[in-house]
Structures are given as C-alpha cells and as structure tokens.
Design brief:
By secondary structure, this protein is of the alpha/beta class. Helix content is 34%, strand content 32%. The chain has helices spanning 12-25, 38-48, 64-71, 86-95, 106-118, 125-135, 188-195, 240-249, and strands at residues 3-8, 29-35, 52-56, 58-59, 62-63, 77-82, 99-101, 145-149, 154-158, 162-168, 171-176, 181-184, 200-204, 207-210, 214-218, 224-227, 232-234.
Length: 250
C-alpha cells in the first residue's frame, strides 16, 4: 500500500536527497508535496493530508516544533530529520517520537518507514504533545514522563510510577506502582540509556530499578535490593560497589 509523504526542509538539496533515497529504498512512499518553511509546511500538510511528514527542525522562519504548534494537531506520522542536537534528541527519546540524523542512513530510513507501515492507524498526537512539553523544560531539568509502546497502544506514564523494568528477550516489562505490567517493544538496554539520569539504576543485567522505591540493600546471599513493593532484585557481583554508591546518593 502506497504511503503519501510530505518533506519540509529549508535546504532544497536536502529535499532532493531525501526524495531520491525514498525512491530508491522505500518505493512504497510517494512524495506528494514539499515545503521549505513553517507556514508553507503547515499549508501543504493541510492540502495533501499525508501519511508521513519528514520534518526538519531548524528552518529560516522557525522550527519544526513551531510548525506542530501552528497545526494544533496532526494526523500524519511525523519523522524528524535533524543534525545532531543532544537536547532535542533526549526529548525525542522520552516522547518515543521518531527522528533521523542527517546525513540520513538508508537503513534507518527504511526502518522508520516500516514502522509507519506496520502501524498506520495509530495517531501520535499524545506523543507530540509530550515532546513539546519536554522541549519547554530548561536544559538539565529532569523529565517527568515517558512514552512507551506496547503491541496494543502507546502509553504515556509518569516516571515516579515506574517501580522497575525487567528484560524479557527483546522486550522490556515495566512494573508499575499500581501493579500493572506493561510489555514494551524495546530492549532494556535502550531504556537504561534514557532513564539512567532520572534516578534509575541497573543493578543487574536483567533489571533497571527506580531508586525511589529502594528500601534496602541486603549484602548476604550474593546481594539483592529490597523494594517497597516487596520485590527482591538481584545485584551482580561487579555492581555491588556501584549499588552502595547509588543508594548513598539518593
């Protein structure tokens, strides 16, 4: 099934390059419109009602984030295209919004398009709203929510309500304060990178723990963490010193 796409970028050569890559690597994607700015981009999106919008961040009359706020709501799947911007990328990860780093890697482009093809019916407005909220935070300020994908839907959850995360092959089980368990379609390693700066700690290869819920570290029998929900999480030998340091920092 053909997907209709719009490309918004203030660099004409970037538009040409992405169109060529889509034609070569993603033949099911048809580019139905392009624009080089915020206002012209909003206009072409309203006219064409595409399935995908490839959206540059920095443009001469504003940013891709400005465009989303101008639109007020967008049905299309947004895939940001950006040069390296550590703070924005951090916000993308917490919001589970797709992005491609320039120069765009063909394999990453194909993977992003395949995700849209697999889940065309799912909107992302809640994720976009979360992204815009995160971007309003000052650099260095802690994030408070994260968007996570299960096979059924996207959940936006408060970090303070996540007790721990547990590896399940290529998936991750989120154990929530209200006893819910969410099977999320990303690896624990991916969440370790995102949550390690938010008072989460990985005491064992298979576990990522919210430090807020740590009750005590029991050093005997190999060592384990007792959590306030009654969970007992093993501590690997090489992590013992780090666990003590982490608990002391809480």
């Amino acid at each position: 099934m053909k997907l209709h796409a719009v490309i918004i970028d203030d660099m004409p050569q970037a538009i040409i390059s992405l169109k060529e890559d889509l034609a070569t690597y993603c033949p099911d994607v048809q580019v139905v419109g392009t624009a080089e700015g915020v206002l012209s981009g909003a206009k072409v999106i309203r006219q064409e009602e595409p399935d995908i919008v490839f959206l540059d961040i920095q443009m001469q009359d504003g940013t891709g984030f400005d465009l989303l706020e101008v639109m007020g709501g967008i049905k299309a799947k947004v895939i940001f295209t950006t040069a390296s911007d550590a703070y924005a990328i951090r916000a993308f990860r917490f919001s589970a919004v797709d992005y491609l780093l320039k120069p765009i890697d063909p394999d990453e482009l194909k993977a992003a398009v395949e995700k849209v093809q697999e889940n065309q019916q799912a909107g992302q407005q809640e994720q976009v709203d979360l992204l815009l909220d995160h971007l309003k935070k000052k650099e260095g300020e802690k994030m408070d929510r994260i968007a996570i994908h299960t096979t059924e839907k996207v959940h936006v959850v408060w970090l303070k309500d996540i007790v721990r995360c547990e590896a399940a092959s290529n998936y991750t089980v989120f154990h929530m304060k209200d006893k819910r368990q969410l099977l999320v379609t990303r690896t624990l390693k991916a969440f370790d990178k995102i949550l390690s700066e938010q008072k989460f700690f990985r005491p064992h290869q298979s576990h990522l723990v919210n430090g807020t819920f740590v009750k005590e570290f029991v050093k005997g029998d190999g060592g384990w963490l007792a959590l306030t929900d009654g969970s007992e999480i093993p501590v690997s030998t090489r992590k013992r010193a780090d666990v003590v340091q982490f608990i002391n920092s809480l």
